[in-house]
Amino acid sequence: MTGAEEAARPSSRARRAQRPRPGLDALEARIGHVFTDKTLIGRALTHVSKAGGNGRAGSYQRLEFLGDRVLGLAIADLLYEAFPQADEGELSRRLAGLVRRETCASIAQSWDVGPHLALGPGEVQGGGRRNQTILADACEAILGAVFLDAGYPAAKVIVEAAFAPARETAAPRGRDAKSSLQEWAMARSLPIPLYEVVERSGPDHAPRFRIAVQVSGIEPGLGEGPSKRLAEQEAARIVLEREGIGDTPGTSETPERSTNKDEGQSPDA
């Protein structure tokens, strides 16, 4: 191969970016739902980096917002049925463990969603098909799409099969960092911690946030992350660790999926 031919040959990353996505039939079979409206599943798999002129409206973000609520309701509904003797605290702990971001990402992986995602070239080259945040978001968007396509009963059947909320396991006892810090403050009759955005950088589809958490009588903690929620968790974790408060909950790029998001499912959330 000549030098010119070698230069003209696409890189391995470019070839991956150009690789056509597989058909949806196999994905629908793994999810357990054949869509009447195929545009819904198409949108549920479209990342904002690929939405083009439609921007966020053409991506999965609105479906993700809806799917998060559908998931929470379905899990709560199924837990209420499965554990009639459980109190509110145990049900809440079980629900928190099942709607975690890492759980949603795991479900998306079991459905093999990655190859079906419509991503911009930058996200493809950056490993977006394996990104836990994107996979978790797509899982919820798919549930939102099922809800719109066939209603709550169909979505609940899929949640029951994929998340197995009735499985008899110990209720998760862990707390995320924000909850731990708030409980610590409330136990000492302090005002609840306040979170403030210090800096936002990066493009819309890949933002970075720096957030400060203020707790009365304690030096503020600064956290960074790709969404407000993750940055808040990191800020809370830093305060817990620095002050030696309890067993510091760990954080990563796949923290718990909150059931009470402040601003839906956008990166700002």
Can you characterise this structure?
The protein has 2 domains: 11-163, Orthogonal Bundle (Ribonuclease iii, N-terminal Endonuclease Domain, Chain A), CATH 1.10.1520.10; 174-269, Double Stranded RNA Binding Domain. Helices cover 49% and strands 9% of the residues. The protein has helices at 3-8, 12-18, 25-31, 38-44, 61-82, 88-98, 101-110, 121-125, 132-150, 152-163, 177-187, 228-243; strands spanning 194-201, 208-215, 218-225. A 3-stranded antiparallel β-sheet has the order 1-2-3. A hairpin with a 6-residue loop joins strand 1 and strand 2. It is flat and about 55 Å long.
Percent of residues in beta strands?
A: 5-15%
Strand order of the largest sheet: 1-2-3
Order of helices and strands: HHHHHHHHHHHEEEH
For the terminal residues, how far apart are their CA atoms? 50 Å
Q: At the first level of CATH, what is the class of the largest domain?
A: Mainly Alpha
Low-confidence stretches: 170-174, 248-266
According to CATH, the fold-level topology of the largest domain is: Ribonuclease iii, N-terminal Endonuclease Domain, Chain A
Into which percent range does the helicity of residues fall?
40-55%
- Coarse shape: flat
Structural class: mainly alpha
Query: Mind describing the biggest β-sheet?
Result: 3 strands, antiparallel
The number of distinct helices, counting runs of at least 4 residues, comes to 12
The number of domains: 2
